[in-house]
Amino acid sequence: MKKLLSSLVIFLSIFLVACDNDAAEKDDQVAGKVQLIVNLDTNKMDEQVTFESGDTVMDVLEDNYEVEKDNGLITSIDGLAQDEAKKLYWMFKVNDEMAPKGADQITLNDGDKIEFYQEKFE
């Protein structure tokens, strides 16, 4: 009985150390946090989310929302689609400035503010 108990303690100790190492490796992958704001009709989602080194705006959006794209352009976020008849399209800002590139071309930095919204574009 004593051998069984000792073996169990050793096994649990090894298991806990292995779990702790996995958690540390996941923490090492996190490069920072960004503020992600998505305006869905009358609902405004505003949250702090983590990202990994090399992630783009699109990566973070897709990690947190259901996204549909067409030729690299966002056409729907969480079921709210652009409306071509009304000329309403998905746009986004990075740090309160209109994005100069596509969401898949902008790499994130710790502390960035990303805001997605629909706007009339003619």
UniProtKB/TrEMBL annotation:
Species: Streptococcus caledonicus
Superkingdom in the source lineage: Bacteria
All copies of domain Transcobalamin-like C-terminal, residue ranges: 54-120
Secretion signal span: 1-18
Protein name per the record: DUF4430 domain-containing protein
Keyword line: Signal
PROSITE patterns: PROKAR_LIPOPROTEIN
